[in-house]
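Researcher: Let's try something more involved. This one mixes different molecule types, so please make sure each is placed in the same coordinate frame as the others.
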Amino acid sequence: MSGYRKYFGKKILWFTITFVVAVLLNFILPRLMPGDPVAVITAKSAQGMSEASAVKEVYEHYAEEFGVNDPMFKQFITYFKNALKGDFGLSFSQYPRKVSDIISDAIWWTIALQLPAIIVGWLIGNTLGALAAYIRKGFDKAVMPVALFLSSLPPFGMAVLLLVLFAIKLDIAPTSGGYGYDMIPNFSWTFIKSVISHYQLPFWSIVIFATGGQAIGMRSMSIYELNADYVKYSRFLGIKDRTIVGYVFRNAMLPQITGLALSLGTMIGGALVAEIIFSYPGLGTTLLSGITMSDYPLLSATTLIITFMVLITTFAIDIIYGFIDPRVKAAQFDE
Amino acid sequence: MKRKVVLVLCLLMTFSMVFANGKGDKGAKPEEQQVAAADDASSGTLPRNQTLYWAGLQWGSINGWNVLSDDMNNFNVSRQAYGTRITMFETLYMYNFLDGSLEPLLADGAPQWNANKTEVTVKIKKAAKWSDGTPVTAEDVAYSYNTGVKIGNTSGNSNKPYIAAVEAKDAQTVVIKAALNSAGAAKNPLMLDNFIAVEYVAQKAWIQKLEARTGGDATKMKTDPAEDVVYSGPYGPYFADDQKVVLVRNDNYWGKDASMWGKLPAPKYVAHTIYSDNAAGEVAFKSGEVDVSQQFNSNVQDLWEKDGLPISTYMAEAPYGICGSLPTAYYNLAIPGLDNVNVRKAIAMAVDYDAIIANAMTNQSPTFDQVPRSTMNPTPGEQALYDQKAVANLQWVGNDIAGANALLDKAGIKDTNGDGIRELNGKKLSFKASCPNGWTDWMAAIEIVAAAGEKIGIEITSVFPEWSVYQTVITQANQTEYEIFMMWSDGSSPTMPWNRVRQLMSSEYVGVEGNWSGNWGQYSNPRVDEIISAIPATTDAAKLRSLYTEANKIYLTDVPSFTLMYRPNCFHAVNESVWTNYPEDGDGQNIPPGDLIHGYSIAGLYTIKTVK
Amino acid sequence: MKHILSQVFHSGKFVVGFCIFMSILLLMIFYPIFNPGNPLQIVSIGTFAEPGIYVSVYDAVDSDMNTLKLDEAPAKRLDSVLKSEDRVKMVMWFDAAGIPVDNLSIHDTEALLTLWEENYDATIRPEGMTKADRNYFQRLDGNLKKVIVTHDKVLARQDPSSSELSVIRTIEDTDYVNIKKVANVKRLPLGTDNFGRDVLKELAAAIKTSIFIGLVAGSIATLIGLTFGLLSGFIGGLVDDFIMFITNIFTVIPAFVLLILISYSIGQDQRGPTTVAVVIGLTVWTWTARAVRSQVISLRNRDHVNLSKLSGHNLFLIIFTDILPYIASYVIMALILQISGAILAEAQLSLLGLGPKTTEVPTLGLMMNWSMLYTAHLNGYWWAYFPVILTIALISFSLNLMNTGLDQVFNPTLRD
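Model: All components are placed in one shared frame. Result:
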């Protein structure tokens, strides 16, 4: 058992170190941006004021509120302490709202959209890839280029095309938002139906985008495995084809799981842009408003949350992987 | 709780979809809805034919309903010079930007000025009531103002220098006293007009409750979301989240009294969906999910000409609406080269304004042929205030490359070293023109200014900094970073066009740090300052006209800045698939195209009808 | 080498990818030659001119005219303003205005137009008719007046001093001009964008910038990845631990997030195409580093490497002669992927408003960003966004296809 403990211990250590680095980057980088965001928020209140001293007063007031007068190091300590508690301070652009408040409104939409979409995309992709590798011939010839083309399409391009086709041309899907414009959230069937119909396009655009890449990966892995010596040997022994195929795909699947962990960041990035195209009320939209409004508390909290989500998922995948892959098990005990 | 529900719902959906691949229901089409429409929204769906939808007034979710705060990001609470929004909170008078008139709202009859124009008396309507049933009194007006000053909100800060006191004489009578200058006259009587038209009246009892709750702390009072606020307007809060804001009509609204409207506004609900960007708002407007759009729709005529949609604007032809502000390019007069009036005028002459208007405004602005440039709005009211003929010889048409070249040649500003760029005092004429990044109409305009420079041997390169950077630089007193740059001029208001002359040329802003007010190019002319101080106190029409004419003469001679286009106070386009009978040009109602929410344009809410 | 090349060009996938990529390159190189000038020049006033051939009316009226008597011409002219839905609408107006329309067929053009001419009055405001509809009927009436009356049109010149008009010529409805004889005819195969720029010309220039960004970013990423991978894999020990420590951190923190943060902190003024390319290159190298490291580890203990070590060859010599040649194909494939990834990354960044500065050069991402800002996709201006998406997809597709082709050549197990 000590092997496992070592494995987990090492993973947790990694997780912590990476998290600290991520927080550090998220803190420092946005603050290097030229321009003074306190002045932006002052500007909103100062319009129509003709006395310069009054404007100065307003500025001082906000500078105090946001704690930008403190030295950088002290700001970071405060930031880090608060971030651990889930408090990211006040938003510049939506003052006096709390950043954590804005994010907690958006994050559930993103999780509810991306998690299922990426899983579904991954499943479909792997199935198609495995089938292509197994059947080869015509099916492979058709699936392979299509999957390759789909994975080459930029995620925002896919989103735009789906939007134009289904929402504008065919007019069978809504164009924006998370639920109907004439709805008040409640537990009625009409409301649920409305949420579903708004969910469709963003969901499928992420699924399609995730499918392509996974299919190609799975196809290559499966072909490798199908040509491996143990397959030939099993065939020679007369083991049933179905049983062999089962082994093959389980072995091919394992690298695909780590593959998922590694490509998660890219996928979420693409999915966030897709969210923006559909004006879906998730983190993508929050991220964009953080950028366009120069709201760095909002921007850095959003990117930190995204990083955190990727970290957590990667961590979870690592743990699961440790349990199911015999090779990892063996490697851990070896050490 | 709500979030978990959403999460569970979405997960459920995913699975249902993977198997069923359901077809979207696309909200509900208006026809279906009218059949299904219940009398109220208890079913969770707002009945479409009883709801008016806006777009373009609200971006991002609201922070609350606190009328004393500037940080609510709530379109029902924000003040606008060209007509404060009076759906929920009300002002004493309603400003009409069509003709600059003031219509009484909470006030009863016209404002009464004393003989030497140092104080104005306003009567309050007897019928005016708060949403809790208590009468609106003069005491409320006074207390709202005093609280604003005390906690230092924008309303208090901006009025403090001009208003000495707001006093309640009796329950129905409020007296607003102007701050006096050394000569004993009102510092600026126009600001009192502005006060009674722009500032909201809040309930004294509610403010006191807020004070008790926050201990009178200014910051806490300004950030309180005020869920319990008491209002006097026809609509009150109904629902708000990060995707929409809905208000419901108060059927006991005092305005149905014969002394005001005599009836209730037509829509039972007014709603604003929060779109993430212009694109989303535009597509919703096109599909009839929005009735009144305050967004800039480029090529708005395409909506009906090409797409055949039931969409119309205040005017059927270009410029489609009423323009009320002048996006202007300022010259930084501290820059060598731009301190030369010939250079300034030559650049202004060479710019192709028709291209700017066609491109940046997609013709939603009168051209400078139709309304020659001046310090005035293109509205008849303001245009009548100066003598166009007297300044006609100073005007320029634009795209006048030959004229601009001739002017420069005559002034001896020539290209001496053959690099294609003119020199002045041995220095190459090379300038940077800038406006904030992402402000697409302004960026297009700056590009066209840059193109004009090339044609007259002046190098102009365009630079588009982020707004956060741009505005910090622009408001510095002695910035030399931006050389030719764009800023706005305020829209219509009771202080216009005087305030615009001041904004464009007053030397009071020279050397002011954190200058948000005007004259960003640091122009200074004693005669203009005299005119600016004389106008507010002038009542004689002929005298006023000659002052404005003189100011314009100086403006067009010295060219401290030049207007690039006209722009509406607010955009106003309506989709008539549910509601119709909106105010339109020439219908004799004199209701301004202010989205049925700005100042007197709220009268439109009482005239609209559902489409049969 | 020759052998490998011929093998590579025998792979169907590689050849197809190569052809697509070359045709994009050809467009990029040759279109500007046929259509020279600044790609950012504003050619049309107003936004989004439709693709097509634009004939100068100013020149056309001065060209030699031929008289063509075409029977269908008047009908075509009328059809251009009176479509069948307009006819239905006209009947609706008669209804609303209370004008009897018994026995009127909407296909009976003559009767319809007579009734219209007799009765239409713009000042009537029928009860319940929306303003949009009233405006529509006014426009329709104006258009009908233009085409029904077949008087000749007169072309006149205005004397600038006296403002008097002098007739130059009359134009009859049977006058035609041969398009070849008109001095100015402008072809805009993909119309213009929101600024009024020639989209195809801009696209050709944008491909150039985007490929430049791809090459710079890809080379930087590959170079860093290769160096780190080689050092880490070959030297091992502490160096390996340290490099892998850095690599692991930057693998887990998504490159997308880093890109956003760094681009944001640089600020818009400083973001040229090169800066953006460098930033992309600096954030995406981890992939290559990990892959190269594992390759090197598997090579490290091969006999020829050990032999070199024993012969006392120094580190660089061993790496250059004994390791690099063996992983060269692998590195080239990684480079190709990095290039296509970088082109995509630029586009994605630009969509978030973090792309290169707008005014200097067009890039595919900026073109996309502007067309989205001007809602081209919602208004049917397909020429402003679709070619851009397609180009990005094709560049990426062709690179991926070539990569797959190479993969099959170098990894025989994958061969069909």
